[in-house]
Amino acid sequence: MSKLTLRNFLGKNKDALAAVVTLLEELNAAVFIEDLEGHLLVGKTFDAPAHQYELVAGEELLGYVKGDEKAFIVSKLFSVILAKESEKKKLGNEVLNVYQELNLIFNFSERLAEAIEPGIIAQIALDEARHLIEASAGMVLLQNERKESLELLASFGDLFFGSSEFQNKSGLLFNILKGAQPEIISDFSEIIGEGSSNYPIKELIYAPLKVKQRVMGVIILANDQPVLYTAGHLKLLTTLALQSSSAIDSALLYEKNICEVREREEAMKRIHEVTNKFVPYEFIHALGKEVLTDVKLGDQTEKIVTVLFTDIRDYTTLAEKMTPEENFSFISYINELLGPIVHEFHGFIIQYLGDAIMAIFPGKAMDSVAAAVAIQRAVEIFNSEQVLKKLPAIQVGIGMHTGPLIMGIIGDGHRLAPAMISDTVNTAARIESLTKFYKADILLSEATLQALDNQEDFLFRYLGLVQLKGKKAPTGIFECFSGNKENDLKKKMATLGTFNEGLSFYLNKSFVKAASAFHNVIEIHPDDHTAKLFLSKAAKYISAEVPENWTGVEEMIIK
Amino acid sequence: MSQKLLIVDDEPHIRMLIEQTLEELEDEDVDFLTADNGETALEIICTEKPKLVFLDVMMPKMNGMEVCRKVKKELAVDGTYIILLTAKGQELDKQKGLEVGADLYMTKPFDPEALLKKAKEVLGLE
């Protein structure tokens, strides 16, 4: 606050000046007014005035009224006006101080509102405190929920309390929190005596961070020089503590909420991951849903898909030699081997049926055929490992069929299950079981073959028509031998023409020619069990009577 | 030669606060003038030609924007630096303030230090 001077007062208050001049004239007084430096401000100066009176505002001397005896009354009146002016000035200054604080708090709140992290809020509070209160170091400490230790939220300067003090329940910091009152410690040497700190601190000022009577932490400022903290400082620090504690509290709550939400999301994700393993995502997706929880009883969709079945041939015989545990881990091993292949070719496994797998390829039929070939290759590698381990090799039969399929959710209010309701599934399963009959590794229906837009990428042999149980029309069956062992594959390719001829003769009841053709195939490829099957059939019809209605269609009554 | 400074606000405590904030300028031979409405402010600006005017926006009779527009656009008064003062939260005024020719725009509650610094700068008293 700048000092009140006579010159400034009269300069600013023209009315007061005019009043004083009028007063002197009316009184007809030979009086003049000077400031402390002897500058004439009002009236006419003359030498050796008889009287001289002081002009005082409160207790402050501002100038003199000099002249005749009337100088007394002038000084009295003028002093009253000046006292009022001085009071007004003091008041104005106090109001300005309050306003300054208000402005600081306003800005502080604004900065706080922009921050959502407890550490940042604490740092803002420290910055603001440091701006208002001289300090060489400062820290904001937070008490953990069980009130067992303190956490450093923000700081500047040297850490004047070591981390050991954060755990020391009988130490100064815990006492400060227990006291829960803002305080100034001006003689810090006393406290050092208690062994709290080795830092050269001369003075401390602190205020607790309180929310609803609960002490959550403390903001502490320290100085390595004696500064003589005042009640005013304490009031400011308390205000900052009050403002920041509720902000920190909200921020902590927010953080906790965010954490909980994240945990819940994680848990949901894990649940989805698990449920996806039980009910494939593709299945849910096909129903037009994103997650299993969206699926409800009666949801269904119809699509043209290729259904693929795999089965380990003669598994029962194999299983008899294993313990149940060995059995389980063997099946698991095979499933872990084949599952990823199905996935790789955009299919998904809808069911594991013991040693069998049922997979669906919702996209192109070629995916299914390519997967089947890849599975046979994988089995071949598996077998070579088995041989090394002196363990039995396995044979996997794969059958597939393409057709419409309804996927849906069946069950009741208490129990739901994904289900495939389709004749396509039955047909595919029956074609798979035909692999044993034809001694072929991969069989597909004519429907699947026709659905392929890249037949030339695979090697096929036509095996004739089969009357599947419960079907009106016979189904054309093809063998795909692209996945066979190299030796087998080459020989089948070499004999493909002869084989096709043989089959053609056979279906036309030219059994002698057919037998001859198949015989030629076997000459080149003695392990062609399919050719052997047709040879023995042809041989049978050569010697026995052929039924009148014989069409070459195989009646399948199994399954 | 003394310089003149005008404080215009309808709220007496704001006028007092600005005066108190700038009181050290009295020692630099700066004359303080005050007005509590836009009309009086316009009159004083025309007759006294203050070098610096703190002008509140929300005022009865003639608001600060209008005073500013008249001074800067219609009368084209030269050498008067006008600082518009508005309450926080009315920041929309900023664009308008610049449109009516204000030299600076400050919000209330103002930062006393910044206010004094700006006044010294405008009056060439740094």
TrEMBL record, chain A:
PROSITE patterns: GUANYLATE_CYCLASE_2. GO terms for biological process: cAMP biosynthetic process; intracellular signal transduction. GO terms for molecular function: adenylate cyclase activity. Residues 306-432 form the Guanylate cyclase domain. It comes from the Bacteria. InterPro entries: A/G_cyclase (IPR001054), Adenylyl/Guanylyl_Cyclase_3/4 (IPR050697), GAF (IPR003018), GAF-like_dom_sf (IPR029016), Nucleotide_cyclase (IPR029787). This is GAF domain-containing protein. It comes from Paraflavisolibacter caeni.
Automatic annotation (TrEMBL), chain B:
Residues 4-123 form the Response regulatory domain. The keyword Phosphoprotein applies. The modification 4-aspartylphosphate is found at residue 56. The keyword Phosphoprotein applies. GO terms for biological process: phosphorelay signal transduction system. InterPro entries: Bact_response_regulator, CheY-like_superfamily, Sig_transdc_resp-reg_receiver. Gene3D superfamilies: 3.40.50.2300. Keywords: Phosphoprotein. This is Response regulator. It comes from Paraflavisolibacter caeni. The lineage of its organism: Bacteria, Pseudomonadati, Bacteroidota, Chitinophagia, Chitinophagales.
